UniProtKB/TrEMBL annotation:
InterPro entries: FAD-bd_PCMH, FAD-bd_PCMH-like_sf, FAD-bd_PCMH_sub1, FAD-bd_PCMH_sub2, MurB, MurB_C, MurB_C_sf, Oxid_FAD_bind_N. One of its GO terms (molecular function) is FAD binding. PANTHER family: UDP-N-ACETYLENOLPYRUVOYLGLUCOSAMINE REDUCTASE. The gene is murB. This is UDP-N-acetylenolpyruvoylglucosamine reductase. Pathway: Cell wall biogenesis; peptidoglycan biosynthesis. One of its GO terms (cellular component) is cytosol. It comes from Corynebacterium lizhenjunii. The lineage of its organism: Bacteria, Bacillati, Actinomycetota, Actinomycetes, Mycobacteriales.
Amino acid sequence: MLDKFLTQRLAALDGVSVDTSTTFAQLTTLRVGGAPTLAVSCESAESAVAALRLLDQASVRYLVVGGGSNLLVADGPQDIVVVRLAFDALDVHVASGLVRAEAGVVWDDVVDTAVAVGLGGIECLSGIPGHAGAVPVQNVGAYGAEIADVLTQVYLYDTSTGEASWVPASALDLAYRYSNLKFTGRGVVLAIELHLSTDGLSAPLRFGQLTQTPGERRPVADVRAQVLALRASKGMVLDAADHDTWSAGSFFTNPIVPASLAETIQARVRDTHGEDDAARMPRHPLPAASTDAEGALATPSAPESTEPAATRANTAEPLEKLSAAWLIERAGFAKGYPGSGPATLSTKHTLALTNRGSATAADIVALAREIRSGVQDAFGVTLEPEPIWLGVSI
Ligand SMILES: Cc1cc2nc3c(=O)[nH]c(=O)nc-3n(C[C@H](O)[C@H](O)[C@H](O)COP(=O)(O)OP(=O)(O)OC[C@H]3O[C@@H](n4cnc5c(N)ncnc54)[C@H](O)[C@@H]3O)c2cc1C
């Protein structure tokens, strides 16, 4: 609980301001959610450390909010303090390829600046909304690249010690849409450091929509332009005028399932959608040792399965990553579903749940539940939400 005395101490810190009028609807790209008890804005890493330390010492619950593009917060008042990191120095060293960005830098500005000077490695991550401080949190990724490929270290405020220090990326357990900063309250990223390539070429391209020749490297600016165009066509670049972008991006992670479940699903698609469609089902076998490296397994929930998920996860059976969007479509949810109402699937991409202008968090949650149970009923796979949820559960 936040008392008046603590609010006054926070407000008195150098480089810290507080307000009680900000709402999560204003702070998030889904544009839903009630008000936190207090919003604290910090103008430097030092002021952030001082504010975070005070909050931790008082055991006050807080949430760092960057661009709010991966957050779904409940309607109504929320008993939580929002911390905003409003420092945004960006340091790009062209000769070495080292880039340091403070937490508050808009992520796409990091990409744009790096690409403009010919540094390579993050061009596929063009157009991802949010701030630099958040990119390690869920190891952002797109088009075959992820931040883990280039992240060297983060300047981390450690909640257990109240101190900030540079921590190697290897200490973050980065995996598919995961790091040990997600859901854990372990720390707050105050700055990131990347090591990019300096020869003007992209990272080796792996994604089919970007290249027909896997491993090809192309000029970074070309790849960035192509990625931005692809993303815009799917409503994955923020645009206030386009409700398809009033979303949290991909709402569900791609499920990772035992190969036998993938077989079962493909057989079901064969029955319901025919041989040709079943043959096109995206199935990406994972390397044998990747159970941990690829994050949590989707919970197998086929009616015939009585085996607990944890047991199945520990079997030596090979794993495959499936496409959540493809499964959602085959479960009967088309783009734009249900066609009208305050919350619908994006008209450009089945994986994004969107606010058409008047949605509440409850509307988004209701749609998420419907999609999730539809996929569960059709294929026995429980989709896992990708955004951080606050005050709501699926
Ligand atoms: C249109 C759209 C497209 C998207 N496309 C992609 C995509 O292609 N790939 C992808 O991976 N994601 C994508 N996302 C999701 C989102 O943009 C990323 O996860 C992004 O990194 C979130 O940044 P943010 O600053 O908005 O974080 P927020 O939403 O503000 O916060 C998300 C979580 O990170 C925590 N957090 C934020 N900053 C810090 C910090 N400095 N230190 C510690 N914790 C912190 C928050 O407390 C919260 O738990 C997309 C979202 C949208 C709306």
